[in-house]
Amino acid sequence: MKNIAIAVAAGIPILSILWALDIPLLLNMEVARIQFLAVLFGLAVALVFLSGFDKASPRARVINLVAAAGSLVVFSWVGLEYQRFLDDFAYLTTEMKVLGAITVLLTLEAIRRTTGWILLCLVMFFLVYALFGDSVPAPLTGTSVTSQELAVYLAFDPNALLGTPLSVVATIVIVFIFFGKILVKTGCGEFFIDLAMAGMGKKRGGAAKISIVGSALFGSISGSAVSNVVTTGVMTIPLMKRSGYSGTQAGAIEAIASTGGQLMPPIMGAAAFLMAQSLEIPYSEVIMAALIPALLYYISVFIQVDLVAARDDISAAESEYRPVSQVLREGWHFILPFAILLYAMFALNSSAAMAALYGTAAIVIGGFIRSYRGHKLSLSSLFESLPETGKSVVELIMIVGGAGLVIGLLNISSGGFALTLALVQLGSSSLAILLMVSAGVCILLGMGMPTSGVYVLLAALVAPSLIETGIDPMAAHMFILYFGMMSMITPPIALAAFAAATISEEPPMKTGLEAMRLGWVAYVVPMLFVFAPALIMRGTALEIFIAFAVTVAGVYFISVAIVGYFKSKVSTWIRWSLLIAGAFAMMPEQLLQLGYLPAFAAVIAGIGLLFMMRRPAAPIMST
User: Which run of H or of E encompasses 528?
Assistant: First the structure.
């Protein structure tokens, strides 16, 4: 049974790669996208039931085997006969009702097994709403549908289970995850850590800076905050503790550094691909929009750990590091796949999936020819990457499947329109209240779920209302992406912070609160680019430069105020003054309707406050 599970897992990325290469078209086979999605989703559901098969009881094994076989048969049936079902869609045939009911039930159970009860309860909530929507009080009143209509619609309509979220993951994200797996097999993760150590290890607070740079680089190929924490944190957290950072600080720094990896171009988390599809724009535009917010995020964290190191007299990390030139000389071939990836997307205008395949080809060739610290690609490790990719994407596939169900339920019940109308009415009275409510919903729904799954749900629930109030569509989607991501470090369920706390052996809640304090800028920046689109590359070059410069200045002033140290300990009144100066420097010029004058004045005032502080005199040495 183990070999069957491996074959099913390998089939998931193989199907995605074949689709990205347009193999059906090259073989003159007429295969619709939704047919491909049905078969791939069937493989993923079957893999869920085959997971842990050997550890199950005899009775559970029988149930799991029947469910896995049923998943393969039912979803393959839906895929192979989809054109016929499409013609019969209006007639709600008995065959379609039975297949639809089985499909939905298998999907719900697979969601429960992979993601737990949170997403399942959310899907069930909207399922009940769709059945009894006409009984819900205004303004959230919907239309009610029968259970049979629901089953057929959710299983067969291209706007439901087999809709856009699943399509993006199946056609793009899986290929990128396979690309990341190959990179890890060839030692790219170690290369990034070594590069961070070589560049930052000998600087003040070097251990924390290694964590920030290493996690940002590693996050560009992992796309998962929790996996980033457990991969890089096992080394960086103990290193930070030995250097002088407290265990809580070490865990919090690693959590926020790893969480930000999902925003770091050029390879962001799966949510970035979903965003490009939702907005119907090239992925390259998402990369450009995410660049300044990602830089602000890491600049803020970098400034704070540096000031903490100065305040607490934390010196360079105690270890021997190789020079940057040596690390690059040994691992230069890891840069080539990223260069090819960017060239393919920006210069050749290739699709994201094809660009990822170009990059994969480059790292496969480089990995076979060159080794890095004992890591060298072989045929066996290359083939091992296929089932590993399949297993790693199962949870994501189930999440976007659940999100597809929610979107379908909102469409058929008119619940999406009702919710958008209610939020727009709220926004018409106060945009600030709408943004705060939306941020709270993003964080609340994100607790216990990966960012990509939260984004898909929020793109259907919250983003339309933000756009209807006049907010730039890119700003609206970046807003929900940011706050969905911040659920990773926001208690009471902060997955990245809790994973880091396990390694640092510190209280999880305390680590989460410290991560919130260090990552404060991520709670503020989304509010800023809603009012100042220049921060997401919307505007002239001069507008973008000014917005970035004054925001960086504001981030620095507020960071000094939070840490309470510059060249020496900062007095209370100067901390409050810097906080006010930083707030005005970061405030979008559209809010005050006075241009950039308040921001420039705040920057000058903040610089003046910093110059007022003097380095304390050196103590007189006694003889």
Answer: helix 521-531
Alpha carbon 414 to its chain centroid, in Å, reads 29
Q: Which amino acid is at 332?
A: W
76-112 residues labelled b (16+ CB within 10 A) or e (exposed): bbbbebbeebeeeeeebeeebbebbbbbbebbbbbbb
Please give the Cα distance from 268 to 266 (Å, whole number). Answer: 6
How far apart are the C-alpha atoms of 367 and 11, rounded to whole Å?
23
pLDDT at residue 620, rounded to an integer: 40
SS3 565: strand
* DSSP structure class, residue 571: P
Task: Locate all alpha helices (DSSP H) within 186-317, ordered by sequence.
Answer: 188-200, 206-222, 225-243, 247-260, 270-279, 283-311
Q: Answer yes or no: is pLDDT of 517 > 80.
A: yes
pLDDT tops 70 at residue 89: yes
Please tell me whether residue 92 adopts helix, strand or coil conformation. Answer: coil
Low-confidence winner among 25-39, 303-317, 330-344 (lowest mean pLDDT): 303-317
Number of CB atoms found within 10 A of residue 227's CB: 18
Query: Mind listing the pLDDT tens digit for each residue in 543-590?
Result: 899 999 999 999 999 999 999 888 888 888 999 999 999 999 998 877
Q: Which residues of 428-464 are buried (b: 16+ CB within 10 A; e: fewer)?
A: eeebeebbebbbebbbebbbbbbbbbbbbbbbbbbbb
Whether the predicted pLDDT of 622 surpasses 60:
no
DSSP 137: P
d(CA 456, CA 12): 21
Q: CA dist 267 to 80, 217, 283, 290, 399, Å?
A: 34, 10, 10, 11, 20
User: In whole angstroms, what is the distance from residue 238 CA to residue 229 CA?
Assistant: 13
Quick one: how far is CA 49 from the chain centroid? 26
CA pair distance 324, 222, nearest whole angstrom: 23
| Tokens read off for 575 | 């901390």
Average pLDDT over residues 142-155: 88
Q: What's the pLDDT score for residue 75? A: 94
